[in-house]
Amino acid sequence: MPVDTGTMQQFTFLGPHKFEWHEVPSPRIENGGQAIVRPLAVTRCDLDLYIANGVIKMKDKPFAFGHEIAGEVIDLGDEVKGVRPGDRVVVPFQISCGSCENCRRGLTNACTSVPAYSAYGLAQSSGREWGGGLSDYIMVPFADAMLVKIPDNVSLPVAAAISDNASDGYRTVAKPLKEHPGADVLVVGGLAQSVGLFAVQAARALGAKRVVYLDFDADRLSQAKALGAEAVMTRYGANMPVDEQFLVTVDASNLPDGLIHALKSTAPCGTCTGVSAGVQMMNGLPLFEMYMKGITYNISRVHARAEIEAVLDCASCGQISHQDVITTNVPFSMAAEVIADPDSKMVFVRDEG
Fold first, then answer.
1. What contacts 66, CB < 8 A, 6 or more positions away?
2. In angstroms, what CA-CA distances link 253 with 197, 219, 325?
3. φ, ψ for residue 267 (rounded to 5)?
């Protein structure tokens, strides 16, 4: 059924702790490769929490909010072949064309067909408004390249999380564990709240012998223990003792002392993956020690579209129960009241009717 070409409701960021539902023009199909999707479940990305509560500073310019999206295809351009109206789909949070050199190499966070850092719900990154998940509709500019059908046995909330954070946690350990099968894994948890927990799940599913999870938050530690990790209460600080070395480490702390601890805890010729650049400029990186030990440090945004199908497969076959990380279900209509609440993983579900 074609989308009403009038107006729709859009959840809009105005400033820290300040959001409103705005009436804006509905998106329209403008070329044959586009699709219109009606978001049905939107998980709150870890980044969204810190934008909502003002920890991450944004310009005083309104923009559409929400970027971890699962929904239903409503309308299509006449060149789209991979989906049809009524299909349930994951919408990768990053915009990618699927045909440029970077996209063909799987580097879908760096598509050259659109402005750098283009994504839903993060207009201030790319300078272009692509719409937000907490809206009646979104336009998908490259439908065949971006949209992934959701298996019947995967829920919409889980599919929404896989559009970003669950795939991010997965990629931190998938390649390193392929290189070091059965290796022990250290996850340094913290401000990237759900990504660290998703990394625990992925490490367990992909054959890690042990997963050790550090954090200063009792609730996340309890979740990590329930997910199969050895959970250790930790207060990050300078010159923390390193009790053990791991071939695979993940820094999800988003804290300087947490990152340094993850790097120092990485065994010779091991790999440490960082999931955030919130630390930005910092002193104290143990570069000489990393050099002598031959450590690989990866820091990058996830290539979401390139990871989604593998993570969906893990969800569909029961290898990973991503719903165990989701802490709170909230209707769209209550988004403004709870968007800055400090849950590990929140999902907004479209109100009935």
1. 11, 39, 42, 44, 48, 120, 121, 132, 133, 134, 135, 348
2. 11, 15, 17
3. -70, 160
Partners of 297 in beta bridges: 272
Nearest to 323 by CA among 144, 181, 197, 150: 197
9-26 burial: b if 16+ Cβ within 10 Å, else e: bbbbbeebeebeeeebeb
Integer-rounded Cα Rg, in Å, for the chain is: 20
State the Cα–Cα distance between residues 147 and 96, nearest whole angstrom: 10
pLDDT tens digits, 224-265: 999 999 999 999 998 899 989 999 999 999 999 999 999 999
Beta-sheet pairing, 266-274 with 246-251: parallel
Q: How far apart are CA 322 and CA 152, in angstroms?
A: 15
**Tokens 């919130």 found at:** 278
How confident is the chain (353 residues) per 10-residue block, as mean pLDDT? Answer: 73 96 97 98 97 91 97 98 98 98 98 98 94 98 98 98 98 97 98 97 98 97 98 94 96 94 97 82 83 95 98 98 96 96 94 69
CA distance 34 to 26: 14
